[in-house]
Specification:
The protein is mostly beta strands. It contains five helices and 49 strands. The strands form ten sheets. Strands 15, 16, 18, 19, 20, 21, 22, 23, 24, 25, 26, 27 and 28 form a 13-stranded mixed β-sheet that branches. Strands 1, 4, 6, 7, 8, 10, 11, 13 and 14 form a nine-stranded antiparallel β-sheet that branches. A five-stranded antiparallel β-sheet has the order 31-32-36-40-39, with no helix packed on it. Mean pLDDT is 94; it is low at 1-20.
């Protein structure tokens, strides 16, 4: 017996050492000089995906130095209007890659490398994969400056660490230290039933639970009476020191009568699985109430790899006459935690409130191809587009397709097509498909044309309609006027906008030669830096062309004067 215990001790020590070795603690330096305060945590629940890094506040400023976390080489550069905006990828000798997103600009040597290729390609948006010997960097070398580019909602640095398989990994595992002395919060708790005979407090369906704060800081729910197969979920957030942001947690676990029944931890994930987040949360509740309930049970379609110590997939089978104590514990990376205790009394009872299912002519099976063709509208869903079988609600009025509603998540792109043969060719050329939100506001859905059909791919249910756009984009100067002397100007700025289908492309020239105008899509702002190239004469002609998504175009021409 002594030898056996010694063997367990050695295995435990080896496992601990292996775990630490897997994440080198002192290898990566922090990417900013300012105190690290987060507006977003790793694994945080976002729309249809887990957050893949840390969002580090930059004191509401742009232009802070961004440092390479370790030696390596720039292996990828991507500049896009949305997403990470200006992003830099550095691959390190230990196999990991660090990612720096929403940048304002790059260090001079990297900026020169990029601009040369942007001018060669005559494109602001670009993706480059430098070779190992082209852009080497040292640890703590300035590689960029913080910004607000892409889909950023405010100035910050998006920072990632990816392993050799491109799997995002929690940067805190590598010793990136964030001050956090605050316990997570639990804001709501819900019970679910999973058969016609199961119930919670005489309710078959979803039941919200009441709870109160206890002296020891835990939360105690009112006792529930239940029977059959049930499950729980909670709405939980975390806050770090120095910030009021509602960030994501690190782990969640559930104990039943003292035995762990469920747990998940956000150490790493793959981009291939991240959309299964929609099976972790109560998606319908999020759609209707903007509240993310994290389930402590695993539904059959859930393919996430974040789970440990799960029994019966987290479901509880409540028996009549038995008593249960359920503890749900939410933790942050620093081990701060909040506990919810739910007393459960097993009692088979009458069901007074029963979950209702709206039946329609269209019953979709998740593991089958599903298609609806009605009048001039066809919508087709590949196999495994949905996570469970359900009745699909569909109707068509004029040129509006009502595709169920946004409360059901879609895992794969479906195809929606409109036959537009009743329109003239001239009318067809100006038509596009748009998704219409609850307020009736349309947003362009990438529309393709084939013969007399328009089609779009989407992963969002809701209302889609045909719209016509006959208006050209607008172009207006911001910081200059036609015929003006601009000798003392560093930048030339214009704004482009389109009120319906949206901007598809733009092109800018001075004296007939392409110029690099950076495009801030959030503000519709085009900016040219006069330092990019020398102008040979005093008099110059600026030409800017903007094209929308149905190919309406507008051209702005202005003469200006400038001495070099």
């Amino acid at each position: 017996m002594g030898r056996f215990l010694f063997f367990l001790f050695v295995v435990g020590v080896q496992h601990s050492s292996f775990t630490q070795a897997a994440y080198p603690i002192d290898y990566f330096a922090k990417p900013l000089d300012v105190p690290l305060i987060l507006s977003g945590t790793f694994g945080e629940l976002r729309s249809n995906h887990f957050h893949s890094g840390l969002d580090i506040k930059t004191q509401q400023r742009q232009g802070l130095n961004i440092y390479a976390s370790a030696e390596g080489y720039v292996s990828r550069i991507k500049i896009s209007h949305w997403g990470y905006g200006k992003a830099l990828y550095i691959t390190h000798p230990n196999g990991y890659t660090t990612v720096y997103g929403h940048l304002k600009k790059f260090s001079p040597k990297i900026e020169a490398y990029i601009k040369k290729r942007q001018y060669e390609n005559e494109s602001y948006t670009i993706q480059l994969f430098p070779k190992e010997n082209e852009l080497p960097v040292t640890k703590r070398e300035i590689v960029a400056f913080s910004g607000n580019s892409g889909s950023s909602g405010g100035p910050h640095l998006h920072y990632e660490i990816r392993d050799a398989n491109e799997h995002p990994t929690n940067p805190m595992l590598f010793g990136i230290n964030i001050k956090d002395s605050k316990n997570p919060q639990i804001r709501a708790a819900v019970a679910y039933t999973f058969s016609d005979s199961s119930h919670v407090n005489q309710t078959n369906g979803v039941k919200e639970l009441n709870f109160k704060l206890q002296k020891d800081g835990s939360l105690l729910a009112d006792q529930i009476e239940a029977f059959g197969t049930i499950g729980f979920g909670i709405n939980t957030v975390d806050r770090q020191d120095g910030a009021l942001n509602n960030n994501g947690i690190f782990s969640l676990e559930m104990l039943v009568n003292g035995t762990k029944n469920y747990s998940h931890t956000l150490n790493k994930f793959s981009f291939n699985e991240t959309r299964y987040l929609n099976t972790l949360i109560d998606y319908g509740r999020f759609y209707n109430k903007r509240q993310r309930i994290q389930k402590t049970f695993i539904e059959p379609a859930n393919k996430l790899s974040i789970y440990q110590d799960v029994k019966n997939n987290g479901y509880l089978h409540i028996k009549d006459g038995k008593s249960y104590t359920v503890q749900i514990i939410t933790k942050d990376f620093k081990g701060n935690k909040k506990k919810l205790i739910i007393p459960v009394k097993g009692k088979k009872d009458s069901i007074y409130i029963r979950q209702k299912t709206k039946e329609t002519p269209y019953y979709f099976k998740a593991n089958e191809f599903n298609k609806i063709a009605y009048d001039n509208i066809t919508v087709a869903f590949p196999k495994k587009s949905f996570y469970q079988d359900f009745y699909f609600d569909f109707k068509k009025e004029k040129d509006v397709a009502f595709l169920h509603n946004g409360s059901v998540p879609v895992h794969k792109n479906f195809t929606l097509s409109f036959d537009v043969s009743k329109y003239s060719q001239e009318e067809q050329d100006k038509l596009f498909i748009a998704r219409v939100n609850k307020k009736g506001i349309p947003s362009y859905s990438n529309t393709k044309r084939k013969n007399n059909k328009l089609y779009t791919l989407s992963k969002t249910l809701g209302n889609y309609a045909l719209f016509s756009d006959n208006q050209a984009p607008k172009i207006r100067p911001i910081n200059f006027k036609k015929g003006q002397w601009l000798s003392k100007y560093r930048y030339l700025k214009l704004r482009i906008s389109d009120g319906l289908s949206g901007i598809k492309s733009y092109r800018a020239e001075i004296d007939g030669e392409w110029i690099l105008m950076e495009y801030d899509a959030k503000r519709g702002l085009l900016t040219y830096d006069f330092r990019d190239k020398k102008l040979s004469n005093n008099k110059h002609t600026l030409k800017v062309i903007a094209v929308d998504n149905v190919n309406n175009s507008n051209t702005y021409i202005a003469t200006f004067f400038r001495k070099q």
